[in-house]
Design goal:
It contains nine helices and eight strands. The chain is of the alpha/beta class. The protein has two domains: 159 residues, P-loop containing nucleotide triphosphate hydrolases (Rossmann fold, 3-Layer(aba) Sandwich), CATH 3.40.50.300; 42 residues, no CATH class. Helix 1 crosses helix 9. The protein is globular, with a radius of gyration of 17 Å. It starts with a strand and ends with a helix. Bound molecules: adenosine-5'-diphosphate. Adenosine-5'-diphosphate binds next to helix 2 and helix 3.
Length: 225
């Protein structure tokens, strides 16, 4: 059986984090835990959390650390995650969240934190062109649309531009990334938990790079491929 994995994936908006996390989740057969997807589902269902989250998300601001960590603690306590691990996408996003995550996981630790690196200029182009399925969250772009008339290939939902992929919200999200999330990279680096991977080139090329750093790390830790 493929061993499980306990990974965090970091990267600016548009670095390809969501795409790579789905692929890693299939490769290692572990749940993809995406705070963005969980929050969008809550908004859609109109839960109390969703009602609190909607306007904050649309404007590109962050939700409070406490709200996010409560949601994540609950998810990480579920059976599938306890059995196989997780690919964590969208959390932590502040140093405070990283500390809270370490407390939730203790006495266990993360296997590795992967930072997908990409330049801001490239990210702006990708985000402006990004389109997503309003129902299942599958990713498309203006240059790679669904097969039939903006109808999702996976679930038949409507493929749209995310409210927070519009210019003002993108600018705010990138600004918050620099202030709040970039310090995390250093935080994990000093703890020896970080691997940097170039986010340029095709999605397949990026996936290969990520799997290689994970396997190299495993080999170092366990002597096993
Ligand atoms: P992106 O990484 O492209 O900004 P996500 O889909 O991960 O998009 O998140 C969408 C929005 O959900 C964020 O802009 C923010 O409002 C909220 N959110 C998601 N994860 C977190 C988090 N860990 N802490 C605070 N807010 C979050």
């Amino acid at each position: 059986m493929v061993p499980g994995a306990r990974l965090v994936v970091l990267g600016k908006q548009g670095a390809g984090k969501g795409t790579q996390c789905v692929r890693l989740s299939h490769h290692y057969v572990v749940p993809h835990v995406s705070t963005g997807d969980m929050l969008r589902a809550a908004v859609k269902q109109g839960t109390p959390l969703g009602m609190k989250a909607r306007d904050i998300m649309d404007s590109g601001e962050l939700l409070s650390d406490d709200l996010i960590m409560e949601m994540i603690a609950e998810r990480l306590g579920e059976r599938d995650v306890r059995d196989r691990g997780f690919i964590l996408d969208g959390c932590p996003r502040t140093v405070h969240q990283a500390e809270a995550l370490a407390d939730i996981l203790a006495p266990l630790d993360l296997d590795l934190v992967i930072d997908i690196e990409i330049q801001t200029g490239q990210v702006l182009r990708r985000l402006a062109a990004r389109r997503v399925c309003a129902d299942c969250g599958a990713n498309y772009s203006v240059s790679s649309p669904p097969l039939i008339n903006w109808t999702c290939d996976v679930c038949g939902g409507e493929v749209v531009q995310r409210e927070d992929d519009k210019v003002e919200a993108i600018e705010r999200r990138l600004q918050l990334y620099e202030v709040q999330t970039a310090p995390l990279i250093e935080w994990y680096e000093v703890r020896g938990q970080l691997a940097r991977v170039a986010g340029t080139g095709s999605p397949d090329a990026v996936t290969r790079r990520i799997i290689k750093v994970i396997e190299d790390r495993r080999y170092k830790q366990t002597g096993m491929r």
